Amino acid sequence: MSRQVFLYDPPERFVAGTVGLPGRRTFFLQASAGGRVTSVALEKAQVAALAERMDELLDEVVRRTGGSAPVPAVAPADATDTAPLDTPVEEEFRVGTMALAWDGEDQRLVVEAQALVELDAESEEDLAEAEERLLQDEENGPPMLRVRLTGAQARAFAKRALDVVNAGRPPCPLCSLPLDPEGHVCPRQNGYRRGA
């Protein structure tokens, strides 16, 4: 089966968002352009890591180019997107592997999100070899979302993604575990219920 690549170069919109209530949210990356919408599911930690690494990569691009690259220091106010995900949200696949790269020729940040794939391997060496083959197989690999963003779009994505991640349940001031609306059993309180 040939690989399905959902390419957005450039997207009209690329955002991280959620469906569901805090504590039970499902996280998505959503790209759209020309009437097409692609939504892929991923974990909260993956959204946070993507946003943080994206900011780090953009900072490094600015540093290495001496500020000549078209990358703003912070997300431009006119690029802020607070709208909800486009509906209906239909999951194309669940993300396993993500990659970031800077295309210096086109001055674009490239984001790739590849579908989660389970590999059978007898040893660590076999697993490493299978992973490498999977990443190198452009024709028959798992589905992939590839988005090419300007510096401003990338900064706006990273800001929104971190805001979405931080919009969940507040942490317990004692143990840092998330507080449910009805409280939680706090290990620092020897199991006594702590209210929200």
Properties at a glance:
single chain, 196 residues, alpha+beta, seven-stranded mixed sheet, two-stranded antiparallel sheet, 3 helices, 9 strands, globular
Care to give the gist of this entry?
This protein is α+β, with helices and mostly antiparallel strands and 196 residues long. The protein has helices at residues 44-65, 124-136, 151-166; strands spanning 5-8, 13-19, 26-33, 36-42, 91-103, 108-115, 144-149, 184-185, 193-194. Helix 1 links the parallel strand 4 and strand 5.
Commentary on this structure:
The chain has 196 residues and is of the alpha+beta class. 26% of the residues lie in helices and 29% in strands. It has a seven-stranded mixed beta sheet. The chain has a two-stranded antiparallel sheet with strand order 8-9. Helix 1 packs antiparallel against helix 3. The model has no long low-confidence stretch (mean pLDDT 86).
